[in-house]
Amino acid sequence: MGRYTQANCRLCRRVGDKLMLKGDRCFTSKCAFERRDVPPGYKGVTKRRPKKSDRGLQLQEKQKARYTYGLLERQFRKFFAEAERLPGITGENLLILLERRLDNVVFRLGFAGSRPQARQLVRHGHILLNGRKTDIPSCLVKSGDAISWREGSTKSEYYKILAQEIEGRTILGWLTLDKQKLVGQIVNLPTAEHIEVKFNEKAIVEYYSR
After folding, report:
1. pLDDT digits over 28-81, tens only?
2. What are the domain boundaries of the chain?
3. DSSP state letter for 136
4. Across-strand partners of 13?
5. 13 CB contacts (<8 Å, ≥6 apart)?
6. Is pLDDT above 90 for 146?
7. In this structure, what DSSP letter does residue 27 have?
8. Which long-range contacts (CB under 8 A, 24 or more apart) does 190-194 make?
9. More confident residue, 84 or 56
10. Which CATH fold topology does 102-189 show?
């Protein structure tokens, strides 16, 4: 399976925006984007970013979405094709499909500090979907699905720390979480109003429509 293997902080610098790919680290002084918010390769010569054409701005928004959800171009293009086939507004359909990914739901429930960390939890078999181990991060959840932890994983040090810290985490309205048992449930599918993103989905549709 293809995946991005370079430093995540380079992606934030490349698109000129903080994408929160490192979880809590992004709020500290160690954040690479805060220390050097110029594209990779600029070597500190200038703080000014080159002006982009309309096409360049559309590409930038598409890349922001890809980097945010951790997808390669081929994977992202498949999601967009599926969004086009669904009834309704393509941009909103795309956002909803991306939010329904299992790794994203694990992140939204507060089980992980970032989507890359959530993807790792899923791939390593720590997460159960409706009581069955599911190690496919791109699996799409549906209304009524339950997300829980594998019994063996509840004995890990990570789980014990999470159980103590989960109280302070905010859960989006389309999800519920039993903070005692650490079991989440999909109340209903997300809508565009429920989704907090740092990219323009309309620009992505325009990019692929040309």
Report:
1. 555 555 556 666 656 555 555 667 788 888 898 998 899 889 899 999 999 999
2. 8-98+196-209, 102-189
3. -
4. none
5. 32, 33, 36, 37, 38, 39, 40
6. yes
7. G
8. 190/95, 190/96, 190/99, 190/100, 191/92, 191/96, 192/92, 192/95, 192/96, 194/99
9. 84
10. 3.10.290
Q: Rounded to whole angstroms, how far apart are CA atoms 110 and 115?
A: 10
Residue 17, pLDDT above cutoff 70: no
Contact criterion met (CB below 8 Å) for 38 and 15: no
CATH 3.40.50.970 fits 8-98+196-209, yes or no: no
pLDDT per residue over 164-191, tens digit each?
999 878 888 899 999 999 999 999 998 8
Which two structure tokens, joined as six digits, stand for 159?
């789980």
How far apart CA 113 and CA 32 sit, in angstroms, is 17
Place of tokens 């990019």: 207
8 Å CB contact between 70 and 119: yes
Rounded Cα gap, residues 118 and 57, in angstroms = 29
